[in-house]
Amino acid sequence: MRPDLFDKKLNQDKIYNQEESENPFMGPVMVVAMVFILVSLFISNISYMKKNPNMSRIKGFKFLNIKNVPITFDIPQKVVDNTVRIDKLANVLYANKKVIYLAYPKSCPQTAGYLKSLENLISQNPDIKLKYYYYPDPQDSMTTVICQKPGVTDCIQNFLFQNCGNNACIVNSPKRQFKVISNTDAQAAYDAIVENLNW
Predict the structure, then answer these.
(1) pLDDT tens-digit profile of 76-86?
(2) To which H or E segment does residue 170 belong?
(3) Domain of 186?
C-alpha cells in the first residue's frame, strides 16, 4: 500500500474512533429505539386482532386462516348458455345475491350434525341473511342430472354436482363465480361465509 494512502486510512480510522468516543450513548439509544419499534408493532398487532377476531391463533399471535380465503372459480359461459329457467338449480344461477349451496346425502349422520351446527351459526348473524340465500340440497341414490335444453349435458345442475357435490359452495350468482368451502367443519364454513359477505 502506498504510504500516502496508508496515512489517509489511518486518519479516517482516528476520526471514526474519535466520533464514536464522543457519542457514548449511541449504542443505548439504538437499543431503546429498537425496543420502541418492537413494542409498537406488538401493540398494533393486538389492536388488529381485536378488530379481526376471525383469525387462527398460533403461539399467542393470530394470522389469517387460509381455509377462510377460498379460491374463486368462474362458472363457464357455456354452462350459463346451456341452462334454462326451468332447469333444476337454475334458481342458484339466476339468484340476485350469493347462494350457500350444500348438496349432501340424506342419510348421513355426520352431515346432519354439520348442517345443524352451520344453520345455528348462520341464524345468529343477520348480515348473512341479507347477503345470501341458504340452499341445502339433499340427495339420494335416485337423484339424476337432467338438463332441459335438448342435447345438453353441462347445465348448472351437472356443473354444481361436479364441483360442489362433495363440497359446500358459495355461489356468487351475479358475478357467475363460486368458491368451495368446508363441508365437514361448520365453524370453518361459517368463517368463510362471513369473510365473503362483501365479495
Answers:
(1) 999 999 999 99
(2) strand 168-172
(3) 70-195
